[in-house]
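Quick one:
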Amino acid sequence: MKPSDLIDLGKRAQSASKSLGKLSDDSRKFALDQIASGLESNCDNILLANQRDVQIAKDNSLNSASIDRLLLDLNVLQSMANDVRTIAALPDPLAEKFDERTLPNGLNIARRRTPLGVIGVIYESRPNVTIDISALCMKSGNAVILRGGSEAIHSNTALVNLIKNCLDSSDVPPDSIQFINSPNRKIVDQMLEMKNYIDLMVPRGSSSLVHKVASGASMPAITGGIGVCHMYVDENVELDMAVNLARSSKVEKPYVCNALDTLLVHSSVASAYLPRIVNVLTENDVEIRCDLRALSLLGNPSKPNIVRATDQDWGIEFLALRVAVKVVDSLQDALDHIDTYSSGHTDVIVTENTAAAARFLNEVDSSVVIVNASTRYNDGGRLGLGAEVAISTNKLHARGPMGLKELTSYKWTVEGAGQTPKQA
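Output:
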């Protein structure tokens, strides 16, 4: 793809965004319902394309985590279709009018949500992202330019072709979904220079990709999302719940950004809790990196998947069946550790003490702070957003899972009856 081709793609996306933003919610909803049905009726074509990507990944000796993120099956496709329908059924974000009031001079003022315009998304591995982002952008009136990773090129191409075919029977302009099917990495650099055509850039992938966008984007960018997720098991705790939450947070989806990375355990419950959670995690092939106190309480085990932690194990997003464990003497110690090593993504306290829970919620400055639930609730679908474009650890303009409202801006509306400002 030549630079001129990319500019043409940007122009078409920009033109489509203006038409898309004027469509009724019913028109956008109809298009999304068509896409959901298309995912269900075209499973064979999509899975065949995905099998090509998976086989190439295996031939290139990609690790199991990368293949897991790439893999589609019938259950995943059905879940994708369900998510699209959930997004379609959400209230129209562009219909929202807020902060409305009448000034003493009779002027009626309010704010109304508006689309951002064109969203550029650079992402790796996960082909379901193609559908999630397209659906969220369509519902919020934004066009999108998608640049997926080369490892999922066949899957993403099949999914984008499906979307465009479904749009033929709707009022949504097909150019509102643009896909770059070239694996040339120089295209990323070119996208980062397209501030005249892309209104927001969103990277989803490795820390190197996120940092590249952060340093190189000429337009606003969401450059957070790296997950270093902590769970603190307090001294006042129901141990069964604490074991189950740590298991869920680490084992169910170990290769995602909201998986548990560091487990902090209060010293007063460590002798009772650590053997139980270690047994559960080792049964699920998790490597456990323990500080010296945790190792001592476990009797300095010689199991190959229980090792001594080093200073480099704190503040690491493992994206693997691996967790770091540290014994602390107080809630304050836990807060200090999180303050030092957190990436601002997801942090959890497990406690029966309401005062400790309240303090944790007040003092931990992360995009999602949780009491007595799994780290995996930092997720757009699980928080009622349908899906997310990304999970932002930025503080401007969006934080946490980015759903429909986070893909909008607003404009002020002022309605008068001939009022003019009085001179001082």
